[in-house]
Amino acid sequence: MPTAIAVTGADMALPPQDERTVPAVVLKGLDKEPLERTLLGLQALIDQHGHVIVVCSQAVPKAVERRLHTVRSLLESDRIAVFRPDLPPLGLAVLARQLRQLASCDLGPGVLASAGRLLTHYIHAGAVLGSVTKLDRVPVDLKAHAKSWMPGSQFGVIAHPEPQLVRIGPEAALKGPEFATALLVAKGQFPSDWVSTTLAPSWNVQGLREVPLPAESASWWGTPKVVEFCSFLPDLSVLYQLVTSVRQSACHWCGIDVIGDRCVFCSATSPLTENQQNQLTAG
Predict the structure, then answer these.
(1) In terms of Cα–Cα distance, which of 170, 171, 159, 129 is closest to 231?
(2) 3-state percent breakdown (helix, strand, coil) of the chain, nearest 5
(3) Which residues have C-beta within 8 Å of that of residue 241, sequence separation ≥ 6?
(4) Do 204 and 124 contact (CB within 8 A), yes or no?
């Protein structure tokens, strides 16, 4: 069985990108159901799949985060990876789906988990907002704050990979990816077509699809007046080539094959990185 890719809500389990995309495991009600039930459920996933990668938003309630770490500690398992990159909810759902695509390939669980860190660099995630007064994920100057109080104001924001913020008008533009991507849009109840009419053509996207707005988006962006968007690499062959082009090494602590300098399962960093850090500290 392929490595299980788990998400913390059904709205984070996007429809399959292709016929090989494995289903997401939805961990429902982590902050509400009894601890014993959560333990039994995750143990069953480990028994069935060998390893579990939980992709979790930084906007989830603290109780969900605590429950995940509690379960991992009680199971005393290095077979559960909790991955919480600094991506908006829609971007995180896209990343989880990319990992679900790659889970169908001949990648070990450590390489697959590490691939999440690599693929975040190729995701452009942002939103159209009706207000930036409570936005704390992207730097907002006083001028933008003042304009946010004007009726009808809308702002285009990029949170990842580099923060950008513009007030939407005839000349408004956001710098996008320099490679071919597809685009997802989650509109919610906010009436704005700027993404489909202006942003998508300027980014030369190869396809645009709409999905429901994730439940955590309003909290992450600081307003319910939000249209979230995310550009990404949709093709499995491109994702696989990116991941397999990176040198693999065995984690010196748990022995699992990984890419990069840190094992997502046991959190150990490579000895080379530790030595470099010691040298920097000594210097």
Answers:
(1) 159
(2) 35, 20, 45
(3) none
(4) no
pLDDT tens track for 147-187: 555 667 899 999 999 999 998 988 889 999 999 999 999 98
Phi, psi (rounded to 5 degrees) for 141: -80, 170
DSSP per residue, 127-180:
EEES--TT--SS---HHHHHHHTSTT--EEEEEESS-EEEE-STT------SS-
Can you list the domains of the chain with their CATH numbers? 124-232 (3.30.1180), 247-283 (no CATH)
What residue type is assigned to position 31 of the chain? D
Strand blocks (E) in the chain: 4-7, 25-26, 52-55, 80-83, 124-129, 155-160, 164-167, 182-186, 208-210, 226-232, 248-250, 257-259
Distance CA 263, CA 115 (A): 11
